[in-house]
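Record type: monomer structure entry
Structure origin: computed from sequence
Chain ID: A
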Amino acid sequence: MNAAQLLVGFKPTPVDLLGVNDRITRIKSRSIKSEAKLQGLQMALNMIDLTTLEGADTPNKVRQLCYKAMHPHDQMNGIPTVAAVCVFPTLVRTAKEALKGSNVKVAAVSTYFPSGQSTIEIKLRETQYAIGEGADEIDMVISRREFLQGNFEYVLDQIIQIKQLCHKNKVRLKVILETGEIGSLDEVRKASDIALLANPDFIKTSTGKIGQAANMQVTLVMLQAIWDHYQKTGVQVGMKPAGGISDAKSALHYLMIVKEVLGPEWLSNKWFRFGASRLANDVLMQLAKQESGVYQAPQYFSKD
């Protein structure tokens, strides 16, 4: 089906703001036992997409990040790798070579990241280039300009075209909404529902390039949209909150939200990711504390 057909009868789902805030408050108030905390920290580490998306990125910086992705802490045995390394398309080949032999995926941002202000032809060429360089995953941005103007068919059509290209090449697709530019939670839910009509592999909160990034309220609304979509279609879609998540305690709260809304089937890096490079070091500090009983100093952890 095309975008126009998928949008026939589309009605936005209103968000219960008080209900969202109450649920977040209850989750944050819960205590976590030591054994569950250790399991959650290891799970969170394995769900992180280590990311470098700066104009000054170099092959050596990407190789260093890839080493950390495979060896988060050389002195800690038995800890998992992260899920993926996310880079610009021009550095995909470097990352792919550095990660050879590991289970760590290479993700590439695409579709004129972070603005999305370009034509579909350019977006498709950029995505094809990233796939040709070896990307396992594509993180695309939607056109917020068109969404805010109410041109939902345009937005959905671009997602469908990028998804078709990705799935033709057996590459997974994450759709970035950039929720900080979209506005209210009602608009976040609307954008989520529209993106989900295309059945992408993930929906994602943010690019990390604006001040307002992921938060638990936005994530909860997007998770609820995923659940409703799953109930209607049977299609499982993943979730990736990105930007601004830097401490292990918050990561554990996010995992609790996922389990409560979607269930344990979503608690793997196949269906849930953190776009939060700074989070890795805090998770590692907490894991070291669980293992030794004391915190290690920050200098024991590499800077990303």
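Annotation 1: The mean pLDDT is 94.
Annotation 2: Residues 3-300 form a domain with the TIM Barrel fold (CATH 3.20.20.70).
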